[in-house]
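Please decode residue identities from the backbone states below.
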């Protein structure tokens, strides 16, 4: 089963959202994420959160459609997005994507991106998607298809840096050490059918980006 979490962050391309929703068979809206689904006339399987960012229209939609709700108090120890992730983890969903998890609230964006590490530790395949980016957490390897309009960047997460090999790229690497906070891994391109990334040591965010 493929799970999708729709959070209340920024989504501009509703055609993209519609395509992503169609590719998943279990949808959870994290609080105000329901307002995004309303714009493409879709219903989630569940809405999770404290409902502090859900519009009155969305609240009425929940009542009219009888949508299942998991209500939490405003004073809680987890974000609505993490609560939605926890629900999917507890129900054995092993492939989870997130949309609406990035946006103007940089605190929510960073914390949401770092939730990918939590999912990896649970052996769950996960990705954060927005209008111009796909974000992955990698501590082993990943293969990405070539896209002409796409950059691939590597951001080390370990204070001691990472050891990485990259094949199929414009700038290949062979067991290269990249320091923490270095920009060495930014804006590479895949020049073959596939680009392969292998982490020999450490953890990193792998980001596919378009201008």
């Amino acid at each position: 089963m493929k799970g999708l979490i729709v959070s209340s962050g920024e989504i501009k391309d509703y055609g993209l959202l519609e395509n992503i929703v169609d590719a998943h068979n279990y949808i959870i809206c994290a609080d105000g994420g329901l307002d995004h689904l309303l714009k493409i006339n879709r219903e989630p399987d569940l809405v999770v959160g404290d409902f502090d960012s859900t519009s009155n229209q969305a609240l009425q939609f929940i009542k009219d459609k009888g949508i299942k709700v998991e209500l939490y108090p405003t004073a809680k120890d987890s974000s609505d997005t993490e609560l939605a992730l926890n629900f999917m983890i507890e129900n054995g969903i092993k492939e989870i994507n997130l949309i609406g998890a990035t946006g103007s609230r940089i605190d929510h964006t960073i914390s949401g991106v770092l939730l990918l590490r939590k999912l990896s530790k649970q052996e769950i395949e996960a990705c954060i998607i927005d209008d111009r980016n796909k974000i992955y957490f990698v501590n082993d390897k990943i293969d990405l298809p070539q896209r002409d309009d796409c950059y691939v960047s590597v951001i080390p997460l370990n204070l001691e840096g990472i050891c990485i090999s990259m094949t199929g790229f414009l700038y290949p690497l062979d067991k290269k050490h990249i320091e923490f906070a270095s920009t060495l891994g930014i804006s590479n391109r895949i020049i073959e059918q596939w680009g392969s990334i292998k982490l020999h040591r450490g953890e990193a965010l792998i980001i596919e980006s378009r201008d």
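Observation: The chain has a mean pLDDT of 96.
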